[in-house]
Q: What sequence folds into this?
């Protein structure tokens, strides 16, 4: 372990990339989404963004990839900033202990999803943001373009169409919650918003920069406040306990940072008051998390001693 100065981020990233390159067994891409199935599981990129916008990276850190569930963090922040604690009447804050697309808990919990990061919870948050803005995906895209400084960020129509064509489980979740009065918009409208949201393409550099508002305790890149201190703490806490599906306990044990993964192979992580990270490698484990991505974040916190604990 060493005391890390900013100038040491780059050599740490290069050491991690070299270790990952020698590691066999990278998992498998998300083959249940045909547009993602062809990704090379040995692709690897990693970036660290400081609070002043300085970014360090290695490997495929500027290669855009399908962000998938990572966008749920930003949609949650945008909605929580608008409605505050009222949101928690419609979605919980507890780990699910079940797969991210599970229907099981919804029935005996009266259509209230366990947390905002499983698919059911993200559908509720997207629904509520869409009700308040009339354009949930437009709000998300504008926010991410602004925070990342990349005006070319956009949704991938092929991926969105692929997910829509194979989105029966998400449709079932939305209809089931609508039957309990926990969805306000027509389900087809919500599903279109949700699938577009998940199809966003961005690089490790883009996502590390876009996440820094959580490391700045709710302050955006332009200095304005999006979230209160308490709200930023809440999102970081939910990322730590729920951000990696039903492997959140193992992620907290290994990495020790708030994080959020997506089945496109990306993982973001937050060091409050210090920096943010994003790593991408499309090979997944059986729980839907990037094998190399989690390993890289594990090595980062082990080598540097940087964590929330």
A:
């Amino acid at each position: 372990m060493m005391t890390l100065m900013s100038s040491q981020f780059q050599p740490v990233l290069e050491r991690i990339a070299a270790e990952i390159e020698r590691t066999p067994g990278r998992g498998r891409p998300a083959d249940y989404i045909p547009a993602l199935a062809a990704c090379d599981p040995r692709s690897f990129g990693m970036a660290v963004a400081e609070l002043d916008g300085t970014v360090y990276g290695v490997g495929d850190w500027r290669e855009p990839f399908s962000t998938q569930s990572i966008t749920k963090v930003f949609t949650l922040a945008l909605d929580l900033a608008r409605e505050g604690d009222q949101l928690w009447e419609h979605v919980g804050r507890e780990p699910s202990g079940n797969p991210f697309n599970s229907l099981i808990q919804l029935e005996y919990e009266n259509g209230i999803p366990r947390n905002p990061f499983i698919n059911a919870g993200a559908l509720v948050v997207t629904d509520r943001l869409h009700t308040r803005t009339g354009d949930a995906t437009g709000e998300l895209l504008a926010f991410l373009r602004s925070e990342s400084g990349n005006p070319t960020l956009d949704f991938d129509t092929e991926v969105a169409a692929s997910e829509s064509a194979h989105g029966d489980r998400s449709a079932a979740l939305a209809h089931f919650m609508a039957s309990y009065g926990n969805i306000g918009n027509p389900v087809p409208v919500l599903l279109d918003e949700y699938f577009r949201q998940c199809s966003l393409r961005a690089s490790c550099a883009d996502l590390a920069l876009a996440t820094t508002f959580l490391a700045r305790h709710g302050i955006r890149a332009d200095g304005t406040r999006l979230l209160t201190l308490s709200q930023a703490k809440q999102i970081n806490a939910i990322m730590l306990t729920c951000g990696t599906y039903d492997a959140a306990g193992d992620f907290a044990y290994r990495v020790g940072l708030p994080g959020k993964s997506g089945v496109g192979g990306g993982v973001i992580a937050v060091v409050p008051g210090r920096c943010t990270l994003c790593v991408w490698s499309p090979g997944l484990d059986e729980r839907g998390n990037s094998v190399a991505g989690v390993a890289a974040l594990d090595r980062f916190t082990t080598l540097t001693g940087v964590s929330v604990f």
Q: What stands out?
A: Strands lie at 45-50, 55-59, 65-66, 154-155, 200-202, 259-261, 266-271, 275-280. The mean pLDDT is 93. Residues 75 and 140 are 6 Å apart (CA to CA). Residues 119-133 form the longest helix (15 residues).
